[in-house]
Amino acid sequence: MSRLIGRNRLTRALFFGALDLVWIGLAIYIAFLLRFDGRISPNYAARLWIYWGIALALKLPIFALQGLYRMSWAYVSLEDLLAVLRAATLSSLLLGMVLFFLGRESSLFSDFPRSVLIIDYLLTISFIGGFRLWKRIYLRLRSRGVRPGRPALIVGAGDAGEQLARNMLSERASGWSPIGFVDDDPAKRGLSLHGLPVLGTRADLPQIIKAYNIELVLVALPAVRGRVIRQIVTLAREAGVPKIEILPGIHELLSGQVSLSQVREVQPEDLLGRDPVQIDSREISCYLKGKRVLVTGAAGSIGRELSRQVLKFAPARLALLDQDETALFLLGNELSRVFPSDQTAIMPVLADVRDAAKISQVFSAERPEIIFHAAAYKHVPVMEAQPEEAIKTNVRGTRLLAQAALESGAEKFLLISTDKAVRPSSVMGASKRVAELIMQALATQRATSFFAVRFGNVLGSRGSVIPILQEQIKRRGPVTITHPGMKRYMMAISEAVALVLQAGALGQGGEVFVLDMGRPVKILDLARELIRFSGYEPEVDIPIVFSGARPGEKLFEDLLSAEEGTEATRHEKIYVTRLSTSWEPRALFEASGQLEQAAERGDREAVLAGLRELVPTYRPQVIDAPVSVGAPLVGAQDAGAPDRAGTRPAPTSSGEIHPKNGGGR
User: Fold this and answer.
1) Can 420 be counted among the known catalytic residues?
2) From 312, 420, 432, 573, active-site residue
3) What is the pLDDT of residues 176-188, one digit of tens each?
4) Which residue of 114, 200, 203, 405 is surrounded by the most CB atoms within 10 Å?
């Protein structure tokens, strides 16, 4: 596939280069004809050929450097035409300088008319730019003669909406015809973009939908809050629109370009979105661009999004490590399609983080400079039943990777941790706290910067609350929740990963960062919202059943314990904990080594005792509750917990701790 894409790019470059050669020659010839009133004397004919050779030698390389041979012919934009202008201006200035020096050295060009250079410059812009623009004009004119598609309305007349409208007008096969925009900026009302009017504001949606018989509402607001999306969806549905689609958020868009192919149906996650997260891309680029990066657990929900976002910062090489062969294959294919192979080498690595020999081989071959460790076992009930497996992956796997990073001289090692590591009530949470302790112990070595990022539940991950609830709603219930008081902090995967990358720029070594994940979401309220989103009435059309919290679950999760507290960083959504540990590195590794040995023996009691020794705050918790029904349950481990751990801040009224209040109660 990459070879085919490469051949297509080369063919396009050769095609445009050959045509530019013709246009440059034609511009020069016409410039001479115009300057000399249609007759080129023999004295100037020789100069014409010399001028033509110099012009070609200068213009074609400059055109290539300015990206003129990477343009999409059918979607030429204003930026592309500005690139043509820059290329023509730069090449003409250099050509003028060459002619000036030739005029001083040779009588052949001493009296060369400057008007030829000016006319050539203007004609070059006209020919090169006009040729690239004509196909887009042709497609637009042809589309006007085609029977209009079904009426669509675009919400948002900003950059994203403008690009989406332009793409829809060019896509004849889409079957949709945009009739205008809706935008809350009153200054835009009555204006038009690409001939499409701004018809009103969001409040006017019902009237506009009915007046124009709108069949599709496209929300082109990639940085908008979930509350706004909920209002748009409600208004559109009440007005009878059969189809509502949305552009993904700013962190999900893999490039700056917006097209109709990127829109998707509105998902429940969109309705729960928070304020858009702002990151400093320059800071992130400083530690990722041109580096060799390793992502473990790459085929999981967090790992996939990490891989996508890391690639936007142009690392030299990205190694994708996972033990799931099929998921790894699909991820590699997806990323290779989207990102050019000449920018980043993408290397899928099939490996188990618990395999010491394999991990050593991977580090020898890949020599990663930056490691994002997202591989972990996450499901609380499964780990309660098999605690030794949690130790093998979450503790041993972390230690092996961290030691390999230290021995290979890696620059940064970032552990994805979880809010369940705070005063853990589950084996999974306790094992992740041990992983944090390992990070802190190795941070004293100073050769590699080790740090962790805690966050809570992410929306849409595999086995998380929303897919489970959707499946139950699809079957018309019952919707099964473990406890009516269950609350969880939630964040979109793309936003959580963006903050993880930002934390990577902040980490110096030994820190445990905490993400501000906003206010907690009550699982019961979430279930009711999803039932309404699906067109039903909760507890009328679809019953809700409380089955009781299970071993290892908490009603509330904390990102901090009361004694930890936080300090602000230069990013408003990222805090650093004031963690202290009584463990000396040598004693810690002896105790964790004994824990690993107990796990290898399958000694459950020794594993639990080892966890209690390493994590004194570990308190297994069981909540008395009604007898569980047979349906899948939505509880702590299901509430969006990332495939490879997560983190978030907590409420203040129910014993929860939020980073902004310094960890106090």
Assistant:
1) yes
2) 420
3) 888 899 999 888 8
4) 405
